Every structure is written in structure tokens, then in C-alpha cells.
Amino acid sequence: MPSDLPSSVLFCCDHNSIRSPMAEGLLKQHLGTQIYVQSAGVHGGSEIDGFAIAVCREIGIELTRHTTRSFGDLEDWGDDLGSYDLVVALSPASLRRALEYTRYLSLEVEYWPTLDPEGLGESREAKLESYRQVRDQIRDNILRRFRVSE
User: Of 8, 2, 149, which is closest to residue 88 (Cα–Cα)?
Assistant: First the structure.
């Protein structure tokens, strides 16, 4: 692992049910335990999305045990947000929330605009294709940002 990579990353989106769990799983798949990886959402109370589980399973990532969590949940559980080297926001709402924390904490924040696939497509296959596109976009961003290969 190149020495200029962060030692800890927090991916965030709106509900921690699609995009940020995908990103967490993808980075763990590529770098294992070399980087501490976590994910969170602006809002809590959701469950992991079944289509996200399905498209990640296609490439060997298991999300069924993922527990969705919000920024507030992380804080309640004692996860110090200031301990992350990098926060990657995948939605406008999560970017705003991450930037709020930069007023109090020294965090590097990156924004990777990523479409929310929920509700896209009418057939099951069309929905899966939307989720695959999001998964692949996140994967490409991870490969580029963390300089890992397939």
C-alpha cells in the first residue's frame, strides 16, 4: 500500500443502505484490512437494500450482514469521527453533513457525486442494471483514488 493513502476512510450517503455500503465493501475487497473502512448515512433507521446486496454478490462482496448506521449512531457507539483520515461523501446531503464536521474536526472530505439508483427502472433487470452502474462507478472511483488494480 502506498504510504500516502489514508489509514481510515468513512464513506457516507443518505441512508447507508445502498451507495456507502457498496463503497465500504468494494474498498475492503480491494485492500482488505490495510485501511480501516466504515460507512454511515445522514439518516438512520433503514435496512440494507436488496438490490445492493444482489449486485455486490455478483462480484463477490457480501452485504447481507451490513447494519445500516447514521452519523449519530457512530457517535453514540463511540466512533470518533475525528479519527478518520478521509470522509468520502456520495450524495449532496452527506457532503453537507461531512462539511459540518470539518468546522470542529480536522477531516479531509472528498465528494464523489453518485446517483441514487433506488426507484430507477421498471423491471427487475432494469433495476439491477441501474444498481450495477452505480456499483461500477463507485468501483472505478475507488480504483483510481486508492490506486488499486482489479
Answer: 8
Residue 91 makes CB contacts below 8 A (sequence gap 6+) with 12, 13, 14, 19, 42, 113, 114, 116
The answer to whether 106 and 82 have CB atoms below 8 angstroms apart is yes
Q: Are 83 and 30 in contact (CB under 8 A)?
A: no
The HSE-up count of residue 72 (CA atoms within 13 Å, CB side) is 6
Q: Are 37 and 11 in contact (CB under 8 A)?
A: yes
d(CA 25, CA 23): 5
Residues 138/19, Cβ–Cβ less than 8 Å = yes
By C-alpha distance, which of 5, 13, 2 is closest to 98?
Answer: 13
Sheet holding 36-41, edge to edge: 36-41, 8-13, 86-89, 108-111
Q: What is the pLDDT along the chain (150 residues), one digit of tens a residue?
A: 455 789 999 999 999 999 999 999 999 999 988 999 999 999 977 899 999 999 999 999 999 999 999 999 988 888 878 889 999 999 999 999 999 888 888 889 999 999 999 888 789 999 999 999 999 999 999 999 998 877
